[in-house]
């Protein structure tokens, strides 16, 4: 039985991205289920009101991070006190979210300390590098990621696309983890007429909106095909390094800036169509949240996000094609009520409770795998010693 879990993440509040939202949901639900959770994250805190605070965790280790101004984000770096923290905590399992630097250290420490680790592949870092002008780093990044995951006890990914990509890099012990969405927070019930009017800039037209990080890897310039039109309004919910450039190139679009929890849910639910242009998503939690609100989604026919949406709950378009995106939005707008209802129906199978219960099953398997590995190693060592003595 899993009693104590150490969660390690390289991205944490006040940053807003899919990894942060996923980790926060996992921690909250594990604590509610009576699991003792410790958190290692940049800026993590137990102090109420702190930007990095999270309710219910037993212990935290706040790690250093470096801000990369070119990418508009921070990256966590290895922490000097991590090994001592693991030894003192003695967790049943270490959950490592989207490992790269701090996560690589966590997987290594867990292996050396004999603690099972579950590494969750959540970010396509190699494609992220390419989209941000660092194409030369794609192959080295993949080699590094594969090296990290090969050392983990168990490796999780949330889509078949991601599992295939990891397998192609020689990563073993792969399992699918079906990620969940907060169906109580993201629901059609929070749709708000006043919020919708604000997103539409005061106009009485359908609102097509994006929600997420405003950054190059999201391919947001494709939205120019929708900007400035009289028959619809374009809204972008979120913030990031590309905001100023996008504000200049998307005439008439509404930019909300960063929104959290209830405010975010109301804004997403008040859209008529959700659109995500980026093809490099391992899942796209924003699309899941929009669909849970009964908002049909338009996404590229590539990456993990394509596994979330079909012609009944939205539409897919040719990656990188503004014309195809425009056609997909038009098709969904013509049938948005039926597709929105189907999007909500599909989402009811993706609740957080079931997702975290599945995750705990993966923890249990990691413990069994680690125990079996230790037994095999001990047996092999005994056999070798006996053979030498007989000789």
UniProtKB/TrEMBL annotation:
Gene3D superfamilies listed in its UniProt record: Glycogen Phosphorylase B
Stated name of the protein: D-inositol 3-phosphate glycosyltransferase
Pfam families: Glyco_trans_1_4, Glyco_transf_4
Region (Disordered): 372-391
InterPro entries on file: Glyco_trans_4-like_N, Glycosyltransferase_grp1
One biological process term in Gene Ontology: carbohydrate derivative biosynthetic process
Keyword Glycosyltransferase: yes
One GO MF term: hexosyltransferase activity
Keywords noted in UniProt: Glycosyltransferase, Transferase
Membrane spanning residue stretches: none
Domain of life: Bacteria
Domain Glycosyltransferase subfamily 4-like N-terminal: 17-183
Presence of the UniProt keyword Nucleus in the record: no
């Amino acid at each position: 039985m899993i009693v104590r879990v150490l969660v390690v993440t390289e991205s944490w509040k006040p940053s807003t991205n899919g990894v942060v939202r996923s980790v926060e949901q996992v921690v909250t639900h594990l604590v509610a289920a009576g699991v003792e959770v410790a958190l290692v994250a940049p800026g993590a805190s137990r102090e109420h009101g702190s930007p990095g605070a999270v309710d219910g965790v037993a212990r935290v280790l706040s790690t250093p991070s470096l801000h990369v101004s070119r990418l508009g984000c921070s990256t966590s770096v290895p922490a000097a006190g991590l090994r001592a923290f693991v030894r003192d905590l003695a967790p049943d399992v270490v959950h490592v979210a989207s490992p790269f630097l701090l996560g690589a250290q966590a997987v290594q420490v867990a292996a050396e300390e004999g603690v099972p680790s579950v590494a969750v592949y959540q970010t396509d870092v190699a494609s992220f590098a390419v989209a941000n002008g660092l194409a030369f780093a794609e192959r080295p990044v993949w080699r590094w990621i594969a090296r990290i995951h090969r050392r983990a006890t168990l490796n999780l990914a949330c889509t078949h696309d991601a599992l295939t990509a990891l397998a192609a890099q020689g990563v073993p012990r792969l399992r699918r983890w079906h990620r969940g969405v907060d169906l109580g927070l993201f629901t059609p019930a929070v749709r708000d007429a006043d919020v919708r009017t604000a997103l539409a800039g005061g106009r009485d037209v359908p609102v097509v909106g994006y929600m997420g990080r405003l950054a190059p890897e999201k391919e947001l310039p494709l939205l120019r095909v929708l900007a400035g039109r009289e028959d619809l309004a374009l809204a972008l919910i979120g913030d990031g390094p590309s905001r100023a450039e996008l504000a200049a190139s998307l005439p008439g679009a509404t930019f909300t800036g960063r929104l959290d929890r209830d405010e975010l849910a109301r804004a997403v639910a008040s859209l008529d169509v959700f659109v995500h242009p980026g093809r490099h998503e391992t899942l796209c939690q924003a699309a899941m949240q929009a669909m849970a609100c009964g908002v049909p989604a338009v996404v590229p026919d590539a990456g993990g996000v394509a596994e979330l949406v079909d012609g009944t709950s939205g539409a897919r378009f040719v990656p990188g094609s503004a014309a195809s995106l425009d056609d997909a939005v038009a098709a969904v707008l013509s049938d948005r009520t039926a597709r929105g209802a189907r999007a909500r129906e599909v989402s009811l199978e993706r609740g957080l409770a079931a997702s975290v219960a599945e995750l705990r099953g993966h923890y249990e398997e990691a413990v069994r795998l680690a125990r079996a590995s230790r037994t095999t190693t001990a047996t092999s060592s005994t056999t070798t010693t006996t053979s030498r003595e007989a000789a």
